[in-house]
């Protein structure tokens, strides 16, 4: 009898474990219309714990202690990036628990403080919208020397980074210009670190959303996942061609190849066989940052006096510079020394390239 009870509890225990593992719907499979956002999209518990924040955000949650994990990427002056809850945090340690920091009040999130954004480009392409920029990352709680990593709705356990994160947009072509209609973004990636960031959201109506918003290149940063100009002091919106899928490149002989990053167990990445191509862009329109982000300024009672705002005049840039600053790599969990080694090699290669 005792034996039977023991066996039954063991079976029950195993059954429970099985349930815990299988009941979890991957975050990227959760389709949640904007008017049906639950308090928390991730109600599971697991090795990485529970979702630390919430997805239903409102005026009572708004402010610099908000734990809102619903983000938006709409336009040059209306977007969010993921950032840590507490000052001086690293992305590697906090990747599962980041919260939304946004340019505009009104959606229950934290607000990106004045002087954080030091150069922003909003790129509209046929298949995705992409925000890239230079930032003072310490102002959104990222340790100033952190080389950072990647956020995306996947992760080894499928719960996403941050756990339970949701992203919406009213900016896709498939939305037909209806800015009151927020569509859920199924595939996206946001790299942060090294005082730059890139946030790409793929149009769910596009056939290649999974490829353009690929999440397997977490060690090679914005330069390879979101190649762009990353210009300091320039705030612009552009139309652009699609990039190559991250990892896919065309060699000098015209041969198209796919690069796969090596596993971390093999040590630092010391070379990558290609330089990413920055897609052509057109119709860039530049703005002054004071104009773009004034609603954030108003949110902070005493903005600091040192302004790094752009004074750029309205010009049109047809093509982005080819050279990519060596500081543009933000790799996920790579140790700092591997990135330094990578910078050195990259600098040598870039130097040789420029000398030609
Ligand atoms: C505001 O958001 C919080 C956090 O999600 C939630 O608990 C609360 O019910 C919301 N309030 C309203 C009025 O919706
Ligand atoms: C940030 O954290 C690091 C490591 O914990 C510490 O050495 C450093 O003093 C901290 N910096 C600030 C500005 O708090
Ligand atoms: C950042 O600097 C702090 C000391 O200020 C150090 O403890 C920490 O290891 C550094 N982190 C990285 C990623 O280099």
Summarize the structure in words.
By secondary structure, the chain is of the alpha+beta class. It has one domain. It has helices spanning 2-22, 91-94, 209-212, 221-225, 289-292, 294-299, 336-355, and strands at 70-75, 78-83, 99-102, 110-111, 117-124, 128-135, 149-151, 166-169, 183-184, 188-193, 196-202, 235-240, 248-250, 256-258, 281-287. Strands 7-10-11-6-5-12-15 form a seven-stranded mixed beta sheet. It has a six-stranded mixed beta sheet with strand order 4-3-2-1-8-9, with no helix packed on it. The longest helix is centred in the N-terminal third of the chain and has 21 residues, at 2-22. The chain is globular. Residues 1-23, 309-329 and 332-356 have low confidence and may be disordered. One 2-acetamido-2-deoxy-beta-D-glucopyranose (NAG) binds at residues 88, 143.
